[in-house]
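Why CCA-adding enzyme? Reviewers of the renewal asked for a concrete example.
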Amino acid sequence: MKELLDQVLKEIKPSKEERELVEKIKGEVEGIAREIIAAFGYDVEPYFVGSLAKDTYLAGDHDIDLFLAFPPETPLEELRERGLGLAKAIGEKLGKYEVAYAEHPYVRALYRGFKVDLVPCYNVRDWREVKTAVDRSILHTKWILKHLNSKNDEVRLLKKFFKGINVYGSEIYIKGFSGYLTELLIIKYGSFLKVLENHDFMLRQKIIDLEGWLKKEPEVAMKTVKREADADVPLIVIDPVDPRRNVASALSWEKFGIFYFKAKQFLEKPTREFFFPEHKQIGDYKKVLREKGTKLVTLLFKKPDLIDDLLLPQLEKSAKGFMKALELQGFRVFETHWGYKDKAFIMLEVDRVERSRIEIKPGPEFFTERGLRFYSKNQKVWIRGKRLYSEKVVKEGIVDVIRELLEKNQVSLGKQVKEYIMRADILINFVPPELSDEAYLFLSREKWNLKG
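Here is what the prediction returned.
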């Protein structure tokens, strides 16, 4: 085990040369930031936050997060306006930049091959001063630096393990373990192996309170615990810098479940594939369809110009909307998949692509010539009053059903992708070549197979 972990660490830990380059670039970025801040005459302090500031980053993974901290008494609108203007000016000096949006606008710049996020925030001293979601980041960095106790490499191992089993990242479309949560777990349990050994205890214990908020601020902390317990989250980690927040609130049961099984598997049989997974074997999705006897419906449409944080949750909502709407129409939807390559897609695995629908057909009065013809042409005929009626079985295809559902606005779609989905091509048991691997991994369940 030790030999394996030493080898993995050797591959994921930044080299001396890489660390020197990172520090050099950080120094240059800070120098440019301070120069622009002085030119603006603002009372703003630049802080590095995130894994680079805490020295928990992996080799080759060194995006820079520079927070521009304004005094707490600054009005929020002023922070947003001045902060964006300042970030733009720094971004322009660094080189190429673009404006991105979270709770408030920030700037993403590129400097000598390094991605640099320039984020306005408040220079808060404790949780009571926090006004925006990003304000805690500086407090997080300070707390980790104080408590990590040279366990940086243990964090690297756990982070790489999480990445290898595809549970790393707190983004809404990932719902996994954040970098900060990874660091807190190492501080709590002491090492990478101890975290894995406690995977079961963690689930039963449920609450991690490193700062002792349940004693220091019981009312606030218990409110957090109750809220998160009611939401049925797998883990509650009360933020050491803010008792109102669960660091693990974004973690889904699915991602925790993957960690749960992979931790057991690694402890039983440790291999480097947990850290450096091999590409999954790809097969023929058409053969899978033949063997399973199910059908594949794919909606293919132009990819909206949205960042993943916005696009992927909208595609997920739309896929689930189709599942619900089609099941109400009598089709069984076994599973859904969504994403994008050149185009965006939603895949639905269904039981069939045609349904039988009964139509009641009103006919003429029974004692007329037309009535006799109606009687002779139809199999099931009855009289209601003077008129004849018959029952007719109609075959209806799923493409027509989907089109009708869309036209009648009977599918719950993501707002920002709706107009694109309305114009989607609908493919049956076929996908373009660039999606054939996605179709195979989806239909074979290898995309999510815990034993793969």
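The mean pLDDT is 93. This is the kind of structural detail the renewal will allow us to pursue systematically.
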